[in-house]
Design goal:
Blueprint lengths: L3 E2 L5 E5 L8 H7 L4 H5 L1 E5 L11 E7 L6 E6 L4 E6 L12 H12 L8 H12 L7 E5 L9 H4 L2 E7 L16 E4 H10 L3 E3 L1 H14 L9 E8 L2 E8 L13 H9 L12 H7 L4 H7 L5 H14 L2 H7 L5 H20 L1 H14 E5 L5 E9 L2 E8 L7 E9 L5 E5 L6 E5 L7 E5 L6 E3 L10 E5 L4 E2 L6 E5 L9 H4 L6
Parallel strand pairs: 10-12, 13-17, 14-18, 17-19, 18-20, 19-21, 20-22, 21-23
Antiparallel strand pairs: 1-2, 2-3, 4-5, 5-6, 6-8, 7-8, 9-11, 11-12, 14-15, 15-16
Helix pairs in contact: 4-12, 7-11, 11-14
């Protein structure tokens, strides 16, 4: 269908992806997905760069992931926006040559697994959930001279226009009025370099539960920005999820795509019920980030956050969110998604418990490049308590974090000190069958055993040449650190993230 312009040229009518409308036989094998919504003509306002905001919008840089085309824009005020293509093309991830010729059209066709207007609904649901979010709006960019050198590649298409979460965002409520929004790399470098910088773990957990509820599996490190707030020498970060391209992902409704989903765990389709297996798949792309940022939370934190989120996501909030997006597709989307969202919402406490169990089984705690003291003690049958203190010159050590592990849920705990002269202190008997691994990192680190009559089992000290074990004890195994280069400091630790 050709693009139909309104008489005043202020809007157009066109489908987002008419090419995804395929035969019943094709849908049987390759999935129905959201093909009907992609093929529905919708009305979109025309964005004219010269008049979109006072002083106009000026293109800066083309970019995007392997599927989405993006274009960064800057206003005269210095504020930045981004255009993100509604239609995608995963075939560009294939190397040029026979593979792209053979599989390119099929991969392009599977763009229909994404709900093209899901980002609008997701933003409204994030607002109801108390999670920061971008504010996308649908626009059509014609053959606009303001595109300059990007005109050939970006003209005559549908886009999401949204604020770019970066720098000073004190005027944006959905970014928490943060004076400084940063990317994931900068946030991780900061929290690993000093104990006075931390992510608000419960805020991040709320955002991750929202991801699971929305069925959004694509949450790699670059899909986040971080609102920072400073006070009295402390910095706290809160998450801003972005790029909701895969929310409401629907893949396994064809014979062949269902088989593929068995071998690609992250491809979890948006259905009424969830399972522990589905949660494992949905969280794979952000697993390293989760293990780092949620390591301080107890099972009770997971339960409380999930219960609060379930109560906030009322039927009325869901219904209101489903009024977002083009009017021509609202009824279809609401009829399809509303019952699924309500069902999945009621499962949030169970979802949180499944994810707690998954993360707790092989737990991880990470220090910083400053000196810390890690104190371990047994506080009941099968219960291991860990306290992390920041060491301070001529002052009492400051408690940074405390968590208790239960051997019923945790089989092993790895503690990484990173740089700084860290102390790992064992108090009393530690005989709870949780295997503890210490990695000192750079610096002159020390492992301090308990009194001679205390029983110890399952302690492994992965030491570097400068480290010291104050007293050899049965129950403590000393081994060279096999990952010394990767665990030495914050900079080396960052290699485990996809940045």
């Amino acid at each position: 269908m050709p693009t139909q312009w309104a008489s005043d040229s202020a809007s157009v009518v066109r489908p987002a992806g008419p090419e995804y409308d395929r035969s019943a036989a094709w849908e049987f094998f390759w999935g129905k997905h959201y093909r009907d919504i992609w093929a529905t003509p919708i009305t979109a306002p025309v964005l004219r760069l010269a008049t979109a905001v006072p002083g106009g919008l000026h293109p800066l840089q083309a970019g995007g992931s392997y599927q989405t085309r993006t274009l960064r824009l800057r206003a005269a005020s210095g504020k930045e926006f981004v255009l993100r293509s509604v239609d995608k093309d995963a075939s560009v991830a294939l190397p040029p040559g026979w593979k792209r010729r053979l599989l390119g059209d099929l991969m392009k066709d599977q763009t229909s697994v994404a709900q093209p207007y899901g980002a609008y609904v997701a933003a409204q649901l994030a607002e109801a959930a108390g999670v920061y979010h971008t504010n996308p709006r649908l626009v059509f960019v014609g053959d606009d001279p303001g595109l300059g050198k990007f005109r050939a590649a970006y003209a005559n298409d549908l886009y999401l226009l949204e604020e770019r979460p970066d720098g000073n965002q004190t005027d944006i409520a959905s970014f928490g009025h943060s004076p400084q929004v940063v990317n994931t790399g900068r946030m991780l470098a900061d929290i690993h370099q000093r104990p006075s910088a931390r992510v608000e773990a419960r805020s991040y957990l709320r955002a991750r539960l929202l991801d699971m509820w929305l069925g959004d599996w694509s949450r790699r490190e670059d899909q986040w920005r971080w609102a920072s707030f400073g006070q009295s020498g402390q910095v706290r970060y809160r998450p801003i999820p972005r790029d909701r391209d895969q929310a409401f992902f629907l893949f396994n409704d064809g014979v062949i795509t269902r088989v593929v989903s068995w071998f690609v765990p992250k491809y979890q389709s948006f259905h009424a019920s969830l399972s522990a297996r589905a949660i494992n798949g949905l969280t794979l792309t952000a697993r390293e980030l989760d293990r780092t940022l949620l390591g301080s939370l107890q099972a009770e934190d997971f339960r409380e956050v999930a219960d609060a989120l379930r109560l906030q996501l009322t039927d009325a909030a869901i219904a209101q969110a489903l009024t977002a997006g083009p009017p021509e597709t609202r009824a279809t989307i609401a009829q399809r998604l509303a019952p699924l969202l309500r069902s999945r919402r009621d499962q949030l406490p169970q979802v949180a418990w499944w994810y707690y169990e998954l993360l707790a089984k092989k737990a991880l705690l990470v220090g910083t490049d400053k000196a810390e003291r890690f104190v371990l003690s047994e506080v009941g049958p099968g219960l291991l308590r860990v306290k992390i203190f920041a060491q301070r010159v001529n002052q009492a050590d400051s408690l940074v974090m405390e968590r208790t592990y239960n051997r019923r849920h945790t089989s092993s705990l790895a503690i990484y000190g990173l740089a700084g002269n860290d102390v790992f202190e064992l108090r009393g008997s530690l005989n709870n069958r949780i295997k503890v691994h210490f990695y000192g990192g750079a610096g002159q680190n020390q492992l301090v055993p308990p009194a001679a009559n205390a029983a110890l089992t399952g302690i492994t000290w992965h030491s570097n040449t400068a480290d010291a074990l104050s007293q050899k004890r049965r129950g403590i195994t000393v081994r060279p650190n096999p990952d010394a280069a990767a665990t030495a400091n914050a900079r080396s630790w960052m290699t485990r993230y996809r940045l």
